[in-house]
Amino acid sequence: MINGENLVPAPIRWGMVGGGRGSQIGYIHRSAALRDGVFTLVAGAFDIDAGRGRDFGTGIGVAAERCYTDYTAMFAAEAARPDGIQAVSIATPNGTHFAISKAALEAGLHVVCEKPLCFTTAEAEELRALAAAKNRVVGVTYGYAGHQLIEQAREMIAAGALGEIRIVQMQFAHGFHNEAVEAANPATKWRVDPKMAGPSYVLGDIGTHPLYLSEVMLPQLKIKRLMCSRQSFVKSRAPLEDNAFTIMEYDSGAVGYVWSCAVNAGSMHGQKIRVIGSKASIEWWDERPNQMTFEVQGQPLQVLERGMGYLHPHALADDRIGGGHPEGLFEAWSNLYVRYAQAMVAMDQGRDFGTHYPGIDAGVEGVRWVENCVCSADAGAVWVDYA
To answer: Which pLDDT score, from 0 to 100, does residue 46 have?
Structure first.
C-alpha cells in the first residue's frame, strides 16, 4: 500500500521534452511522476517556441535557466551540471520519439517515452540495444496497465482460474473523431499526418493499449500470425486509418481480436478486454476501472472490486485508499511512475528490479504489432506470419 513513505532513497532529478502549456498528456506525466515524491522536476524543453516554453516552465516552478530551447541543448547543459537530470520523459508527437529517445540514452539518461516508441521495428531494436549497452531504463507509457485489477487478472489467469485460454477479445473504440475534427484541433491534426504519426493512426495510437494489457495478463501467449483490415471513413485521413480490425492466432491455439476505432459514434472510450477460458471469463472496462467481472460457467456473475482483501497481494500492493473509494487514471499512471523510479534506482545500483512495468520490450512489441498489421492490411487483409 502506498502511504506516503519514501519509495526511493532520493527523488530522481527529472526533465521533460514537450508537455508544455495546453498539453493534456504533459499534465498527467507531471502529476504521476511527482505525486509520490519519486521524481523532482528540475528542467525541461517544454515547447518548440522557446519563449513560450520558458514562460510555462517558470510557471510550474522550473528555474528559468533550466528551461531550454530544445532537447539537445537541455541534454548538453544538464550533463555539465553536478545536479543535472538523471531521467527524461518525452511527451512530443510520434515522429520525434526515436531521435529524442536515442539522444537521451546516448546522454546516459533513463527514458520514459510516449508510445509508439518509433515508427519501425528496426528503430525499436536499435533503441533496445542502446538501452542495454547504456544500462538505462526505457519506460513506455501504457498507462492503463497501472490499474490494480490488471494485476488481479494476471494472477487469476496464472493460477488457472479461467482454465485453458481460448479467446482474447480487445477493443479501444471511441467516437470522438467520427468527423474531421482535426481541421480545427492541432492535437488531432498531427495524429492523422503520416509524417508525424507514422504508418498508422488508430492501430498505434489506441489499439496498442489493450494489446499491452493482454501482454500483462497473458505473458505466455505469443502471436503466430495475424490478419488486419483497416479503413479511413473520414476520407481525408487516408492513407491512415480511423478504424481497424485485427485477428490474431497464438502459438498455443488461442485466438485474439483487436478493434481499434476513433469513429465509434457515441462511445466515450470503449476500451475493454475480455479473456475467455475453458472454465470462466474475466472482463475489464477502463471506464469502470475499479471493477472486473468474473464469470464462471454455471454460476452467478461476480464483480471483483478494487481494494478488497480477497484480491491477490500483487493487486493490492499499489492500493492508495480502501475499497469503495474510486481510483482512476491518475492513480494508475502514478503506480507506473513509482515502478519506473524503482527500476531506475535498482539499475543504477546494479540490482534487478523484479516487478514488471511497460518497458523497452513493450515498446518494441507495440511497434512490431503495428508494422505487421499495416503489412497485412495494405496487402489486402491477408494473413501474415508474425515477424
So the answer is: 98
